[in-house]
Structures are given as C-alpha cells and as structure tokens.
Amino acid sequence: MTTPVSRPRLRLAAAFTATLLLMTSCWGAEPGTPASSSAPSGSAPSATGVAAAGELSVAWEVERSGVQAQVGVAEGLVLLPDLAAGNTKLAMLSWEDGRELWSVDIAKDLGGADLLESGPRMPAGQVAFWAHAPEVSPSLLVYDTAAGSLLARVEGREGNYLSVAESGAVYEMIHSPEGSGTVSISRAASATDFAAKQWTIQEDEEATKWFWVREHDGVVDFCVDGQAGPLYHYACYASLHIADATPVAGDGQLYRSTWVGDTLVGLEQGGPLQAFDASGRELWRVDVPAGYPLGWGEHLLFFPDDGPPAVIALDPGTGRELWTSDREDGWMEPLIDRTPSPEDGPLVMVQAYPSVRTGVLDPATGDITLVDHGLTDFREAFPTVDGAVLIASGGPDSLTWTAVKPGQPGTLWTNVLSEYDAFRMFDRHLVAVRGDRIALLH
Predict the structure, then answer these.
(1) Do 122 and 142 contact (CB within 8 A), yes or no?
(2) Is 326 exposed, middle or buried (0-12, 13-18, 19+ CB in 10 A)?
(3) Which of 76, 270, 321, 404 is the most exposed place for a label (fewest CB within 10 A)?
(4) Can you tell me the distance from the alpha carbon of 3 to that of 19, in angstroms, rounded to the nearest whole number?
C-alpha cells in the first residue's frame, strides 16, 4: 500500500527523526530484520535527583533488556518482547512508579511470528500489537490490560489492512483482484467479534489512501497521515454513517475534510470548498486556493498551501469570510495532532524560518503574537507535557531538543533528551529510552 506523497513544511527531516521518535503505523508493515540476540532481564525502578525549577526531570527509570517496543495505555506502559532476543514475555509497568504490574509468556499466541510492532490504539482495558511472520501479512493480537490475557487474534491476509476506532470497532480494507479497480471495506463491532461484519461496501481504489478512522456522532471519518497541511499531518477523505455505511456527502469522497459541529466541510480535488449538514444537504460552496480546512470548536479555519494569507476564517454556516491573517513575515502552521479539538488546549502556531517562533492563535479574531525562541536549523516539533512544545534543531550530528511555552519568551528545557536515544509521547506520558534503559519524564 502506498502513502500519498506529502509536501511537509515543518517536518524537514522525517527520515532522520523517524528513527528518533519511535514512530509506528496503525497498519501492518513488512517484517523487519530481527535484532541480535540477548537474554531478557529486568531491574527495579529507580528515581533520579530533583531537577532545577522549570527543568524536565525523570520520574522513574528501569533497565529492561529483551524489549522490542513500548505501547502506552491508560493503565500503564506495555513492553513488547524482542522475539529475536529470545524473550516471549509481555509485561506492563505502572505509570506511577515503573514497577512491574504483570508479566505473561505469550509464546503460544505468536503463531510463528518473529517480530512484534506496536499496534493501533484500543479502547480502555485493551492493548494491541502486530505480530509479523515471514512471508505473510501481520496478524493483530489483542490483550486485556488487567492481566495480559489474549482476547482476540485477527489473522492477517494478503492485501488487507485493519484500522481500529476508539470504540474498539475494527475496519478492514481488502484489495479486490488486480484489475478490478475496487476495494471492499467492512466494519466489525470489535476484535473479538471480527468475523461478524456489520456491513461491507465496495469502493474504488482511491480508497486505498484511507489509513485510520475516527468515530463521532454516528459517523466514521476515514483519514490518512502524510498529506501537506498541519504539523502531525492528517487529512480526512470520507465520512460514512456508521449504521449503514452511507456517505454523508455526495459519493463520500473528498480531497480534505473537517467537521465544525454538525457541519462537514471539505474540498474536492481542484474544486471549491463545500459544506454539508449531517443528512448530506449542501449548505454552501466557495472558491478557495489550494489548502486545507480545520475545524476548531465553532470556528472554521482555512490554511492555503502557498503564500499569504496564512489563515482565512470562514463562517461555517454560510462560508462567508470573517477575517484573514496576511503575514508579511512568512507562513505559519498549527501544531495539532490528528484529531484536533479545542479540548486539547490553545491553538498553537509554529513558524520555523528564519528562526523558530511560536504563538497562540485566537480563532475568533485571528490575533496572535509570535515569540522568537532563538532556535535555527529547525527539524521537528510536537506538543508534550504541560502544554510545552518540544523542538528539534541543529544538524544530524548536533541535534538538540528544546522545550518552549508557546507564545512565551525563553525556553523551558534545553537539550532535555541528551541522555536518551529515542522518545515517544503516550497521551501525557513522555517515555525515553537508551539501550535497556526506559524512563518516564515529567
């Protein structure tokens, strides 16, 4: 399956930072090369010294060898065993102090798998990961987080892809025989009921760009990461009614779309911006430049791909332009995750050149004050704990990570991750690793 070509602005070193950020996909990937063998072991968690005011500190740190990857869930940090190292024990650590809550041997569940990879986010009480076996598609293993018991195994099939909604519903996409030009998409209520499909529909091959799903208000959006647009790029292409898979708008496929309350706003390729109510009735359409819409609470914002204005605000009920932000000092983009919402906090904006500046946009007025943090050679940025933004700058041989408070002068933490090789955010938990060391930072 191919990902649509992206033209990112703020992720200039994706190939480099991917190794640093432990990024994994919601979809099965081809098996990787097993690591060299080592015996699994563990150690009791240890606390470090208290950091200076405003500095990032280590809540706890443990040494665990034989770990392939980590998966964060509400109940704790799940450690996936490194099968190549001879470890087959799945374990979970407490977010509070790093102690082991449980450990189970899953050798009987692996079915010939020789590599494990973190899987899609699951509903409360469940954790899932991909089990890769040679020359077959990866299978999805689902465990409970109370004691590590296997709940479901969804066997991989050639040409199929799986995505799990926060409700636990599993969406499967299967490529039809070559030359048919179609794919089938089905929904099961859960991984445990995967065989009992609620519905199956046929779509053209354009649907192969649908990588992940989100459900809300009786609707499922099919979305993909990697498109030109906001940092932590996301774009949604189709919205279907969960009950019967009927499209909300038109033929169900848009170029980029977003929801503003009960209004679906989207673009067709090269076409106008259109708005629909939940029944599919068109409310309005306006001509806009190439770009992408963003719903932020009751506000509809549009970000052109090239050149000023940096932001256009539209009335979601009529499409009438409310205000524009025409910045002479260059473009800026929102720092959001792939399910943007005002509940996530303020709308943080980032401007990377000629130096990194951040600010908080008022979506009602367009007011923003960008603050220069004196950082150049921008590489990457993403939101982290307590509303801070973590920024990577410098070259491959001199990369530093600095945390700032958006719109506030100065820095919070400088080169905070110099003691670690990789890190990842699990909701509000920042986990860093180096070798066998695993730490929770706060």
Answers:
(1) yes
(2) exposed
(3) 270
(4) 19
- 263-267/256-260 β-pairing: antiparallel
What pLDDT score was predicted for residue 147?
96
d(CA 263, CA 371): 34
Kindly report the three-state secondary structure assignment for every residue of 15-37: HHHHHHHCCCCCCCCCCCCCCCC
Burial of residue 333, with CB atoms counted within 10 A of its CB: 0-12 exposed, 13-18 middle, 19 or more buried: buried
Query: CB atoms < 10 A from the CB of 127, how many?
Result: 25
Q: Give the pLDDT of residue 344.
A: 60
Give the torsion sign (CA, 14, 20, 21, 25): positive
Q: How many CB atoms lie within 10 A of CB 357?
A: 23
**In order of start, what are the domains of the chain with their CATH numbers?**
56-157 (2.40.128.630)
194, 183 Cβ separation under 8 angstroms? no
Q: Which residues contact 323 (CB under 8 A, 6 or more apart)?
A: 312, 313, 365, 366
pLDDT digits (tens, 9 = 90+) for 145-187: 999 999 999 988 877 888 899 899 999 988 876 667 788 899 9
| pLDDT of amino acid 157 | 80
d(CA 247, CA 257): 13
- CA-based nearest residue to 220, from 195, 196, 201, 192: 201
